[in-house]
Amino acid sequence: MPNQSSPLDQVFQALADPTRRAVVERLTCGPATTTELAQPFSMALPSFAQHMGMLERCGLVRSHKTGRIRTYHLVPRRLKAAEQWMSRQRALWEQRLDQLDAFLLSQKENPS
């Protein structure tokens, strides 16, 4: 069955893992090679490469290879889509809480 999840689902799935979040944070400082990115983690390079593959498939990072060195760059556009989704959800819940607050205040002022 082909992966039919939306790009936003893929971004959240990628960010659900602490290793991948740490890589995204590191890449906010600038491009880095696979070796540089893998250094803080105690895992085999093939396992780390799977994390990078997932980040690349969901569009959070891009890479280019020069000789034997692969360098990764952050693609902030995908993060922006996730941020916009979360902002819409926050606004919705703030509106609902404001309505609940107004209702409870009206009940307190006019008890039946």
Strand and helix map with partners:
Blueprint lengths: L6 H9 L2 H10 L4 E2 H5 L6 H13 L3 E6 L2 E6 L1 H34 L3
Antiparallel strand pairs: 1-3, 2-3
Report on this model:
There is one protein chain. With about 110 residues, the chain is an alpha+beta fold. The chain has helices at about 5-15, 20-25, 35-40, 45-55, 75-110; strands at about 30-35, 60-65, 70-75. A three-stranded antiparallel β-sheet has the order 1-3-2. The protein is elongated, with a radius of gyration of 21 Å. The protein starts with 6 loop residues before the first helix and ends with a helix. InterPro entries: ArsR-like_HTH, HTH_ArsR_DNA-bd_dom, WH-like_DNA-bd_sf, WH_DNA-bd_sf. Pfam families: HTH_20. This is Metalloregulator ArsR/SmtB family transcription factor.
Short structural description:
This protein is 63% helix and 12% strand. It is of the alpha+beta class. A hairpin with a 2-residue loop joins strand 2 (61-66) and strand 3.
